[in-house]
# Entry
Amino acid sequence: MAPLAFAMVILVILVSISIAIALSIESIGVWSRAVGAQIGKSTFGYSLHVRIATLGRFFTIAAAPALGVLVDMGAEPSILAACGALTFGATFLILSFVNSTNDEWLMAIFLKLFGRDEPKLLRNIGVIEAKKPGQIFSWQCAFAFSFTAVGLILVNYFASIFPDWRSTVVQTTALITTSGTLVHVFLIDPKLARSGDNDPSLLVGQVKSFIRSRLVASGIISIIFMLLIFWGK
# Structure
């Protein structure tokens, strides 16, 4: 394998792992809000979620220069599409694992982050029956995630197609990701906060729906990027 091709493969792997970790951490971190509400610490739970999400965003920011390097190295659009397929495929697998396992181990981890390592609390939280949120909430979560998660890779994909305009194309990242952020801040987050204050059981259901929506969206986005690999050849 030529040195340039080898370098591209390494960059694709690093970017995919980094962004997949970021998206997974941010998604799973929402459990801190559910646990916080159950033990009467909703504000701390919200704060913890913000910190976990910010940590996740660091991995995304760290991946951005590597994507730029791929475009500047002359990577074909199919390479960037492969990066997207691997990223969201890995995210899908991680969230599938989280969604399919018992919630108890996640709750135990977050209880420790709250400074509470009490088996009785864990048992009490574990028997909470989650109320199912409406379908609109799930669609909102999937929509917001699709825009906030896909923006960085998508714009670099188009930058590889239009290299002469890559600076202009890359600048649209903020526009795409902000569209999803607005939906999250004005539609999703207030519902999570309201449930945390008034109905912790509903919040547990919303948290599970939040993660499942991102899981499904990741699978669909991964398939779309797979199709773009072959379309770009």
Notes: The chain has ten helices and no strands. The chain has a mean pLDDT of 88. Residues 3-231 form one domain. The radius of gyration is 19 Å.
